[in-house]
Please model this.
Amino acid sequence: MVPGETRTGKIFESMLVTALQKNNYSVQEQVKVGNKPDGSKYTIDILVDSLIYISIKWQQIGGSAEEKIPFEVITLTHILKTKNNENARAYIVLGGNGWRKSLKEWYCSSEFLEWILEAKKYVTIVNENTFVAMINNRQI
Model:
């Protein structure tokens, strides 16, 4: 694979889109939904029913994706806070086997979100298996 290529992440995204569609969710991919805290444009990987923002973070081998999670939480919290819609929420789905196990577990715990003001109101971080189960049970 060429450095910087995101083929495996796109495959994972396609799998989630298919699962969502099979469970009768309305899905849009790569949607500009607002601005990051610095004012630059932000594109969400999947937008469901115009209210549910899904950011996919795939890490097949060790790397920097795991270090980008805090800023992703801050960005999604900022965007959803400005939307001013009580029903809007976001999920960050962590997929792949390249994550440091302890860090992935910490991110998926409720403890991590305590570190970022207001994040718990808007953002949930889950692993890929949990998220697919949530889709199949229509719990997102």
